[in-house]
């Protein structure tokens, strides 16, 4: 009788031991299941693609380079970076981005606000603009290439990209000058950034 009691008691303890092991094993995945989705959700909500600074995805030097690559394919001479045109481009960017981009938004094709006055004294041939709203900014986008593609689709902007000569009238004389200088400038102000490409001649 005593032997049977010991066997039964031992069996009960063994069964309880197995139950405890099973419960313990089940509780670990439950905790992991609760933690892992939280971690993954945080990663998804926080953008799993590392955010790039706006300067990385909107590189003015790279824009000029890809514009020159496009000009080369179209048989136009590359644009040599011009200090004076960089000054003009930077002034344009600051001017157009002022007042929460009001001047930029009001400027139309072939009628960019203030340009004739601002371009006086510069060897100006044309300009192309690209404005970005930073409140909806896609940090993974290649804005340099996107800017070129958008300009190519617009006849007036594509003309700026590919222009090889410009005619200048001095009195009764018309001179034909090679468009082979340029510069790209960028200004960031609050919720917007504006890029300006200026082309010119010697």
TrEMBL record:
Gene3D superfamilies: CAP. The keyword Metal-binding does not apply. Residues 65-160 form the SCP domain. It comes from the Bacteria. Pfam families: CAP (PF00188). The chain crosses the membrane at residues 6-24. It comes from Candidatus Shapirobacteria bacterium CG2_30_35_20. Keywords: Membrane, Transmembrane, Transmembrane helix. The lineage of its organism: Bacteria, Candidatus Shapironibacteriota. This is SCP domain-containing protein.
């Amino acid at each position: 009788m005593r032997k049977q009691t010991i066997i039964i008691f031992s069996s009960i303890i063994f069964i309880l031991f197995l139950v405890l092991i099973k419960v313990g094993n089940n509780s670990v995945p439950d905790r992991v299941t609760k933690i892992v989705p939280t971690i993954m959700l945080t990663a998804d909500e926080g953008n799993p693609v590392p955010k790039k600074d706006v300067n990385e995805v909107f590189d003015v030097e790279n824009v000029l380079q890809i514009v020159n690559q496009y000009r080369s394919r179209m048989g136009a001479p590359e644009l040599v970076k011009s200090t004076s045109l960089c000054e003009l481009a930077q002034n344009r960017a600051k001017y157009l981005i002022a007042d929460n981009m009001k001047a930029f938004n009001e400027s139309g094709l072939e009628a960019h606000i203030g340009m004739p006055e601002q371009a006086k004294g510069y060897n100006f041939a044309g300009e192309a603009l690209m404005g970005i709203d930073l409140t909806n900014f896609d940090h993974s986008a290649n804005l340099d290439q996107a800017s070129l593609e958008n300009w190519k689709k617009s006849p007036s902007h594509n003309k700026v990209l590919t222009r090889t000569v410009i005619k200048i009238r001095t009195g009764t004389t018309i001179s034909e000058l090679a468009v082979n200088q340029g510069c790209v400038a960028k200004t960031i102000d609050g919720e917007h950034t504006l890029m300006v490409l200026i082309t010119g001649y010697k």
